[in-house]
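FAQ: What does the model actually see?

It sees only this:
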Amino acid sequence: MHDDVEGSGLSAVLTWITHAIETLTIGRDFATMCRGWAVQFSSRTLLTTPLLHANGCAMPSFRLTPRHVWARPVMLVVALALSVAGCGPYPQSTLHPRSDLGTELSDLYMQIFWWAVLVFIIVESLLVYAVIRFRARPGQEGEPKQIYGHTALEIAWTVAPAVILVFIAVPSVQSIFRTSQPPPADALEVEVIGHQWWWEFRYPEYNLVTAGEMHIPVGRPVSLVMTSADVIHSFWVPRLAGKRDVILGRTNRLLFTADSAGVYLGQCAEYCGTSHGNMRFRTIVDAPADFDAWVQQQQTAPPPADSLTEIERRGVEAFTSVRTPASNSCIACHAIEGVSFGVLGPNLSHVGGRTTIAGGILPNTTDGLRRWLTDPAGEKPGSLMPNVDLSDAETDGLIAYLQSLR
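And it is asked to produce this:
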């Protein structure tokens, strides 16, 4: 009742997988299918034989014949290639920390990793020894001698894991206490608020509010005070700090000191709705002088209306227009210093100076702004920003105006 598929190794494997998927998709019970198959291994043959054909289910078996023994090394090479594909200088690697907290977590991870390597080597060595030492011998009949209980061995395999756990627990607890200290007096406090699906950053010391990008100075302790405006989020900048939940009605804290200037990518690490994967942000670590210059720029009021160009003034008109329904008006959600006071969306007072928009998913360019203004839901599924059906003239004016807000 079944078909034998005999051919090149990889094609045989793919054929079997295809038949399995087809069987599952027509409603066959997965557990029944699994019970109905036995996989037998020998030195040169991989034979899959169906033992049960529930409801007339016909599945193929395949055989890697001696002519195709090359398939195994090829599969091994492919597996190794896929494994090393995960290695590289990726921007969100926790293995290349750039802060004191990141280094602390990385060092702790490496300690636990090498303990795991040691346990793996010991266990696998004993397993290989047992397999070779106690294998069946030619001419051997009946079961080997059965041994029940070995007090010394049982004490050893109970004490050894306990000792290893102590060596893991002590540095772990030490790291917890070191990273939970109160912030020093000179720490920069940044209030972090998670929204669906963007991040808001407030600087009480400087009376600043921004979104999507957090600027901090290199070498100065930073104390993040985090909460949520809606659902549970998780703040994560892999190269600077570990994950920290951001919860409505609760304040969580994170303290770290960045040691290298640069741009570090972050994201929400807790599923929070449709566009969870689009809830990104950037942490820009500046040299002290560059950070001071950024603060000064953010404290500068937006340009007055009489200094705007004609197309920028059209943008102001489009931004301040009251639409139907009123919730589709820009001023209903967004704040621009001296123009509007919305609090539901990102503060746009200095949006022209940011590198990204739309919660970090689009570049802050003319094309990026146009895509966002004309189809926010298409660019970011579930976005709370409505499509307000702007005319081409209104879109051009808004783009010019927003780019002038530096």
